[in-house]
Specification:
Layout (H helix, E strand, L loop, with lengths): L7 H12 L4 E11 L9 E5 L4 E15 L4 E10 L7 H21 L4 E3 L7 H10 L2 E6 L5 E4 L14 E4 L11 E5 L3 E10 L4 E11 L5 E9 L6 H10 L2 H12 L10 H22 L13 H20 L7 H11 L7
Parallel strand pairs: 1-5, 5-6
Antiparallel strand pairs: 1-3, 2-3, 3-4, 6-12, 7-8, 7-10, 9-10, 10-11, 11-12
């Protein structure tokens, strides 16, 4: 059964169209899966975020659609990463990740043109490839990023190259004549400016974000950016934070739908298993959100819905074996109590 081809991209695309709001992002994040054995395809050495080190196993590059209004993420497709040589690990991985997007760009663009990725993808070859596909990239910079102020003063007449930049950005002491405060609340202050990123060789919209403690003291600074220089800084921060919802797909898949439990030794079976497990998380979220509007957030407990479905199966067996009519009005309240039995949030 697991050798049969299934079009997860089309299925999940239709699912997202039906169940999601109109404020969507594309998310991408590789996930490490523990795997041993000599005959499992594409087993190699990959970075494990949980362990904080490179480990032997397999990796899947996971595409997701993030619903900002619902504050959740939905699985789109996972593609197994082939192992690459140590000498070309970074460039080889980037090429593979870019191919995942290029092969699916038409159907991805139906949902969103904004891609949110973590700081590892802050690489010129990746960002340029996404720009060629028509995607806006939202990412974060290192604290020692090489940035330059853009010169907007009068142009000097005569021979010579015109002046384009007016000095390097000191990230410990930004020029607040250039960086304008665009948002402030009890937790953070956001300054925005268009600057030149030397590593990317392009202008970017930067959201310089200071996070404060209860006393109003700055305790951390994070540099977010977008390749769309007209993007509002607050949206850059909101969208980047929404990226973390992808992590819950991995968590729920590993804890409740058997994502890490596959022992198959063929590419087709592993691909199907991983995608079935993560698509099952989508279906569970749809059941939880059955009577909730598309643009309303809600807490999604996969453990609770799994408990309810098991209770429902058991209850139906009891009704059948004892010839009880489940539609009787007096049974409705009792049914609800039994379906909620064992739930954490009941």
């Amino acid at each position: 059964m697991f050798k049969r081809v299934f079009d997860f991209v089309s299925f999940n695309s239709m699912f997202i169209t039906k169940h999601c709001s109109d404020e969507l992002l594309i998310g991408f994040d590789p996930s490490y899966l523990s795997k041993s054995g000599k005959y499992t395809p594409n087993v190699g050495y990959f970075y494990s975020g949980v362990a904080g080190m490179i480990k032997r196993g397999m990796e899947v590059g996971c595409l997701a659609i993030i619903d900002v209004k619902q504050n959740t993420a939905y699985h789109f497709e996972a593609v197994q990463t082939p192992p690459v040589k140590k000498s070309e690990s970074e460039t080889g991985l980037v090429k593979h990740y870019c191919k995942i997007f290029s092969d699916r760009i038409r159907i991805l663009m139906k949902h969103s043109k904004i891609l949110v990725v973590d700081g590892w993808f802050n690489k010129k070859n990746f960002v340029d490839a996404m720009a060629q596909l028509g995607l806006e990239v939202i990412c974060r910079l290192r604290h020692d990023a090489n940035l330059k102020y853009i010169y907007n003063g009068p142009k000097k007449k005569g021979r010579g190259r015109p002046k384009n930049y007016s000095g390097k950005v000191d990230l410990r002491n930004i020029d607040k004549r250039v960086f304008k405060k665009s948002y402030q609340d009890k937790e953070m202050i956001i300054y925005e400016a268009v600057v030149y990123a030397v590593s990317l060789k392009k202008n970017i919209k930067m959201a310089y974000t200071e996070y404060m403690n209860e006393k109003g003291q700055v305790v951390n600074t994070i540099l977010y950016y977008s390749t769309n220089t007209s993007r509002d800084a607050i949206d850059i921060v909101r969208y980047y934070k929404a990226r973390f919802q992808m992590e819950f797909i991995f968590r729920d898949g590993k804890q409740y739908t058997g994502l890490a439990n596959c022992q198959a030794r063929s590419v087709e079976k592993i691909h199907n298993h991983v995608n079935y497990a993560m698509t099952a998380v989508n279906v569970a979220k749809a059941i939880i959100r059955k009577d909730i509007k598309k643009d309303q957030p809600c807490s999604c407990s996969i453990q609770d819905i799994k408990t309810e479905l098991f209770n429902q199966f058991l209850l139906e067996r009891i009704f059948i074996n004892y010839d009880i009519n489940p539609e009787l009005q007096k049974n409705n309240e009792l049914k609800r109590k039994i379906l909620d039995f064992g739930k954490v949030a009941a």
